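Batch job 17 of 40 flagged for manual review because the log was empty.
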Amino acid sequence: MSLTNKALWVIERNLHEELTLGGLAGALDVSRYHLAHAFGAATGRSVMDYARGRRLTEAARALGHGAPDILAVALDAGYASHEGFSRAFRAQFELAPEELRRKGSLDGLALVEVMHLPEKGTMAFEPPEFVTQGPLLFVGLPQRTAFGEAAKTIPAQWQRFMPHYESIQDKADPIPAGVYTDLDDEGNFDFVTAVEVGRFGEVRAPLVRLTVPKQTYAVFQHRGHVSAVNRTFDAIWNEWLPSQARHAADGATLERANPGFDPRTGNGGETIWVPVVG
């Protein structure tokens, strides 16, 4: 069973218990970082966004069937107050809990149903190379995003970054890189479209300096079209890493285009650098 399907089972089994990214990761014997990336690559959404959606969906069902005590429903869904529950409920379904109870129907609601992903079997890719590098210095354009939004936001972010490329001084590697860093429990992270530099010179907004500490990486080749890179990410996080003695480290993941990569067509491949320990 893939790591994500195991996470889905644990969430459903403990839907009315306290759920945190750290707690779920501990139950699965992986790091928060590993679970968040595995779940995001497989489903396109964050772990806690899915868990919250499932809890609110079951709360909506209870209210749709006339549950008399909204606070009891809120507590069962993991909310400590009526106010907090109502805000989350309205954000999810665009109506208040009281309105749904009066309406008595779930028609038209964006319910989050139980998810189970088909087991795809092991994806064939080249064994990774292990390298230790760092600290690495980058200058780039940051954007806070989430797993469910990255496919839409990152291509436009690259377009905004490239006009700044020529002005960046002391490039250590001319090929730009993408850096995933600063993951939080809600599945939000910073993605930095960047270029590695030998030293930091003058950097003007909206660009920032980013230092990635020394780290050992498992470096994977993705030789297909760039649009299919998420399949490789999915296989790394959900299949390869869970089968290894090494574990994902809580550090920055890098994407580096291969020297022959053609940004006009998306062909040429890239490498994926996953920080590991063990």
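Reviewer: the log was empty due to a logging misconfiguration, but the result itself is present. The longest helix spans residues 47-64. Unflagging and moving on to job 18.
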